[in-house]
């Protein structure tokens, strides 16, 4: 009798296992995988667009110097639209172009920190002074016109004109 109870218990465990396993449908898994692939594709596309815009802005700076800066501030233009903008710092951390809030231009932002205290000012400077002279940094920053921070990825690269070295960058926010 005890053997029969053991067999019944084992069978019940198998039945419960298959019932629970049946709740996780292959379609659900495939849907999740598809969503992850689409998210990765969108991230790659945004990274490609952002870095290309920074490279184009650097070309303009290297051709025109500070004469290029007003173009970066033109709302709804190539360089400043929606929550996209090009920013420019001197390599000593002085912000020279900041389209979302031009009152912040001229400030020393070398010790700038993100919402969580990440030292992004020093990270930007160190990145452009490093071996590659460019790179991506992620941090939490409010979108233009908002106060709550969102995750942001920023591409920065050094540029030079007339013995002045600049940090040129732009980023994008992850969708919530």
Task: Please tag this protein with its features.
176 residues; alpha+beta; Beta-Lactamase; 5-stranded antiparallel β-sheet; 4 helices; 7 strands; 43% helix
Please characterize this protein's 3D structure.
The protein has helices spanning 2-23, 26-64, 69-73, 120-129; strands at 80-81, 84-85, 87-90, 95-97, 134-142, 149-161, 164-173. The N and C termini lie far apart (59 Å). The chain is an alpha+beta fold and 176 residues long. A hairpin with a 2-residue loop joins strand 6 (149-161) and strand 7 (164-173). It has a single domain, classed as Beta-Lactamase, CATH 3.30.450. The strands form two sheets. It has a five-stranded antiparallel sheet with strand order 4-3-7-6-5, with helices on both faces. It has a two-stranded antiparallel ribbon with strand order 1-2. The chain is elongated. The mean pLDDT is 87. It contains four helices and seven strands.
Oligomeric organization of the protein chains: single chain
Question: What is the structural class?
Answer: alpha+beta
Task: Kindly identify the CATH topology.
Answer: Beta-Lactamase
Q: Name the poorly predicted regions.
A: none
Membrane topology: Multi-pass membrane protein
Main location: membrane
Pfam families: dCache_2
Organism: Methanococcoides vulcani
